[in-house]
Design brief:
Elements (H helix, E strand, L loop, with lengths): L32 H4 L8 E7 L2 E7 L5 H13 L5 E7 L3 E8 L25 E4 L12 E4 L14 H4 L3 E7 L1 H8 L3 E4 L2 E6 L3 E11 L29
Antiparallel strand pairs: 1-2, 1-10, 2-7, 3-4, 3-10, 4-6, 5-6, 5-7, 8-9
């Protein structure tokens, strides 16, 4: 899912205690405050993408996708994303970017990372996922943002790349209106791509870490656990075929 082959098109697919003899009546030592305190909530870093159409703020989930988040942050901190574009827009489905320049030439990336799609998170509206090719362990710099609920892109099994799914590792917390504007741009062929390139190209002018969320966003767990999926936008264009 990371080059002009458009692979997404066919993916509509104890601790326990016991009493010792003679010690049953002994009172247990008082628990320390540290041992009884609740574990702190995991830190959720936030990243701001400054685009030519407006800013998008993304909250990351390193507790569920540590390798994918670390990989993304490495690209962010190195300045890699500055000058890349959203080169693929499939209306009513997703927007994708993070690799190609304004001239639609791919930038040199770091080695690919292991796939973390089997992390319990779902490709719901507004989530950020790692783009990849047919090999599940082929993700590098590219990512996509789900415009609608796309649970069909979730992990199903390890039988093949089609069933492996796409690793969710973040969620848009500000600027979803910008994502929707990008989703509504006209598209067509350009450069090496036979279609789906937005007009005009949406440039990522910069990306930076802006801190940690004071109140972490609930993680988008799979709908099968009972979480109600996010609602889709009121009006959307049909997906291309």
């Amino acid at each position: 899912m990371k080059d002009h082959r458009h692979p997404l098109r066919w993916l509509l697919p104890v601790v326990f205690a016991f009493a010792l003899p003679g010690l049953a009546s002994a009172a247990p030592p008082p628990a320390s405050a540290a041992s009884t305190a609740a574990a702190p909530a995991p830190a959720h870093p936030q990243v701001a993408l400054k685009t030519s159409m407006g800013d998008i703020v993304i909250e990351l989930f390193p507790d569920k996708a540590p390798k994918t988040v670390a990989n993304f942050l490495q690209y962010v901190k190195s300045g890699f994303y500055a000058g890349t574009v959203f080169h693929r827009v499939i209306p009513g489905f997703l927007i994708q970017g993070g690799l190609y320049t304004r001239e639609l030439r791919p930038k040199r990336t770091l080695p690919p990372i292991p796939d973390e799609a089997h992390n319990g998170l779902s490709n719901l509206r507004g989530t950020l996922a790692a783009a990849r090719g047919p090999d599940p362990d082929s993700a590098t710099a590219q990512f996509f943002i789900n415009v609608v609920d796309n649970p069909r892109l979730d992990y199903v099994g390890n039988q093949s790349g089609m069933t492996w799914g796409y690793a969710v590792f973040g969620k848009v917390v500000e600027g979803m209106d910008i994502v929707d504007k990008i989703d509504n741009l006209p598209t067509g062929p350009q450069g090496p791509f036979i279609g789906d390139v937005p007009r005009p190209l949406v440039v990522i002018e910069g990306a930076k870490v802006i801190g940690e969320a004071a109140h972490p966003t609930p993680e988008p767990v799979s709908p099968v656990t009972g979480q109600v999926p996010a609602s889709a936008p009121a009006a959307k264009k049909p997906a291309k075929h």
